[in-house]
Amino acid sequence: MDGFSRLALVETKLFLRERAAAVAVFGLPVALVIGFGLIPGFGDPQKGLSGQRGTEYIGALGVAIVLAILGLNGVPMVIGQYRERGILRRLGVTPVRPLTLLLADLTVWAASALGSVALVIAVARIGFHVPVPAAAGWFILAVVLGIAAVFAVGLLAAALAPTARSAAGIGWLLFFPNMFLAGVYFPTEEMSPAMRQVGNFTPLGSALHAVRDSWMGIDPRPEHLGIMAAWALVCGVLAARFFRWEQA
What we know:
single chain; mainly alpha; 10 helices; globular
């Protein structure tokens, strides 16, 4: 087993030991699907949701929530802690490079996000007869691009924050506006045109739109896919440019 595999295994165990994180990533989206799915008539197409089934809509929200929790909270906070505690600096004098730890963390978080999405789809399908995403290829692309975009924003926050506390603070400052503008707190159908347009340009908003569309069998709008790709590219480049392995 090489260094990357060992680190990925260790980081997986550490992630699963954090019960609050595991519950938020795997339990919260499922609880939302079950809670709303038990409402009579909620599984029918909803006029206020552009004809989407209510339970299907909640499943898409669960995907967005997972991306936000991992990308905007988990990524900056954990990397900030590693830097502040000198873990990255100590790795610099071992055969395992700090970049390997960073890649292992990102792999574990991305795999957790994909696992949570699969669990949401399975619970919605088995428990409430919600069809699986009709445009499966577009759905997978939307989720992968969403992970790349939101995680890149989290990496940039971790790169710019001098301490673990400030990294966590920046993460929370990014978390709530993204959730609000994406339409997690209330549907974008109920937003003003101006607010809806602003939300379309956020990484989480474009991801949620693409996930909702592809789940219903509609091809995602190219601009939503392009916005996610742009966030991933720009924030990823900036994070690589300003990232510090040691605390300033």
